[in-house]
Amino acid sequence: MLQEQTQKTPTRFVFYIRVTENEYKRVLSMCDATRCTAQELFKKGLLGRVNLEKPVYLLSPDEVQEFRTALSRIGNNVNQVARKVNTGLTEGWHQVFNGINRGLLDLNHKLGAKYADR
């Protein structure tokens, strides 16, 4: 009589990650401080805090439209300058370039202030 072998599906799965020496020391320090294993720390850190399956939207739809409009204006200015420079008009663009730079810095500041890495 042949016995059927049933294959069991695993109930636990394993991930391996590579860390630098400094990261390893930090994890060990966190393990000591929290009295958790590294596995528990990673599970809590990744699965316990944020639902990463959902898309993350940094900007609201209104902010996206505002940002897109500002970038479009800056892009139009750059294109106008490029056209003029390509036709041979090469002087007198410092004010325009400074304005473009200010606009880009302003947008960068808005994003950095609102969504800076914490």
Your description of this structure?
The protein is mainly α and 118 residues long. It folds into 2 domains: 12-54; 61-115. It contains 4 helices and no strands. Helix 3 packs antiparallel against helix 4 (94-115).
Task: Give me the number of helical elements.
Answer: 4
Order of helices and strands: HHHH
Radius of gyration: 27 Å
What fraction, in percent, of the residue positions are helical?
55-70%
Describe the main β-sheet briefly: none
Class based on secondary structure composition and strand pairing:
mainly alpha
Number of separate structural domains: 2
Terminal residue distance: 65 Å
Task: Please report which band the strand proportion falls in: under 5%, 5-15%, 15-25%, 25-35%, 35-45% or over 45%.
Answer: under 5%
Outline, from the CA principal axes? elongated
Low-confidence stretches: none
Q: Say how many strands there are.
A: 0
Chain-averaged pLDDT: 78
Question: In short, what is this structure?
Answer:
The chain has 118 residues and is mainly α.
Summary keywords:
2 domains, single chain, 4 helices, 0% strand, 118 residues, elongated, mainly alpha
Q: How is the topology of this model organized?
A:
Elements: H1 21-34, H2 38-47, H3 61-86, H4 94-115
Helix pairs in contact: 3-4
